Amino acid sequence: MLNNAQIRYCLDQMGEMFPDAHCELTHSNPFELIIAVALSAQCTDVLVNKVTKKLFAKYKIPEDYLNVPLEELENDIRSIGLFRAKAKNIQGLCRMVLEVYDGEIPRERDELIKLPGVGRKTANVVVSVAFQVDAIAVDTHVERVSKRLAICRWKDSVIEVEKTLMKKIPKEEWSVTHHRLIFFGRYHCKAQNPQCPSCPLLDMCREGRKRMKGSGVVNG
Length: 220
What we know:
The chain has 220 residues and is mainly alpha-helical. It has twelve helices and no strands. Helix 1 (4-17) crosses helix 11 and helix 2 (30-39) packs antiparallel against helix 8 (120-130).
């Protein structure tokens, strides 16, 4: 496991590599953001943005999603994985937002996770990006990078990864670190073919050194 000084070095290096890391899901308000994040499960942000470009032009408010048959909404998001379940959750979310929250997206994580299709990760993204509340959303990139760098343990669950990161990273850096971890994992420390040879963190990355050794490449 990395010590605090090593973690600080890693975060600083990621900050230099991706100083402008941000949420890449296109949205103009909290309602659009929660829909986009809900659609992004097991799907790339690029594809979600292609779909929401038309979706958000057609559906502006929660009522719009409820004024069409479920099958029509399914067809609108058909190119996205799990589209049937996501369409059902979106309509359920919109119904609850109207009936329980007077048409407004709640600002508290505990309230957000009550909405259909909204888990802890989605709730953390929304409170962080839409409402500027310090939070760390653990998606597949954040989890992979945290474990490869031994900031967390391989056996840690997603919630354990989140708690460890919250403990080891200053609260005021939670949100920006979340985005930098995502960018680092999405564009550098990829699930397949990570850029180990050019990684500034290779010397302290056990996983990276193991990969380099297995490929027969020796770090100079």
